[in-house]
Amino acid sequence: MNNPTNSPELAPVSLGEHCRQAREALGLSLDDVSEKINLRTTILQHIENDEFIHPAIPATFMRGYVRSYAKFLRLPEHLLNTVSYGEAEKNDLGKNTRAKKAVNNHSSHGRWVSYLTWLILLIVIGMTLLWWWQNHQKTTAERDNLVENYVATTNNASVTEQTENVLVKENHSTDEVVATDSTNTVAAPVDLQPITSVNTTESEVLEPTTSTEALQSEMNRIDNAEENSAQESSNTIAEDVAVLRIEITGTSCWISVRDGNRKVLAEKEYRQGEVLTFNEGENYSLIIGAPGNVKISYQGKDVPLKVDGRVARFKLPQQ
């Protein structure tokens, strides 16, 4: 009689082995079973080899395949409880948190890109404004140098020319005195003695005629002088009406005049004797190259200028 303690223990039969034995007992091949239960042969091989966990087959599907195969072979239900199909995928509660964090990271990245774009835009605007200011300063400096060079070249000759003007005025005054004396000399023969004798010679008749013609010409000259004086006075009255009046009394002067809207009204070199009048408003900006060569009146009042050899810059009305 055999001792049961010495008999070898029988290894338990797996579910896959039960399926294979049952299929062979029915005399069916894997292809036959595949046609009957509509499962692929590879899946049936995995089940018979106890390969219930496969990376390409989800655990839920594998459980359904095993249940269908076992039901076809009429295996007991308790054999299915011993099979492990791997852990089912659990609900990932942190998935939403991670997704939200990823969205926040993306939003933060977009915010930094927006900040960087605005920073670059501000830098470009600042560089543009700096470039414009440098060009403006350069243009102003070039204009100032032009005016100063012009003043430097004209100041040396201004004293000599002013002296010549004084001499010319003195000569003109002398000529006027001489002309006045000649006028008085010509006008003297008007006081003719009355003719006492009717029988006069031809020479005696011609002398009064010549004196009459001279008197007529002198009267015409006086009338013309009065007309010119009236015309000059009317021009003077018209100029006095102007808000701003600039008269060039020296040899020449470089003048720049702008109105309150920075519109250029005059900007060039003017010669002696020229008169500029402006009625463009009440606000003016002036640059005078040689202040000693001009006379300026604003609203009928003379504007004092500093004659120190430098360019005069000021606005009217003065603050």
UniProtKB/TrEMBL annotation:
Top-level taxon of origin: Bacteria
InterPro entries xref list: Bact_Cytoskel_RodZ, Cro/C1-type_HTH, Lambda_DNA-bd_dom_sf, RodZ-like_C
Stretches assigned to the Cytoskeleton protein RodZ-like C-terminal domain: 252-315
Membrane spanning residue stretches: 112-133
Pfam families in the record: HTH_25 (PF13413), RodZ_C (PF13464)
PANTHER family, A to Z: CYTOSKELETON PROTEIN RODZ (PTHR34475:SF1), PTHR34475
UniProt name for this protein: DUF4115 domain-containing protein
Entry GO MF terms: DNA binding
Presence of keyword Membrane: yes
Organism this protein belongs to: Conservatibacter flavescens
Alphabetically ordered keywords of this record: Membrane, Transmembrane, Transmembrane helix
SUPFAM superfamilies: lambda repressor-like DNA-binding domains (SSF47413)
Coiled coil: none
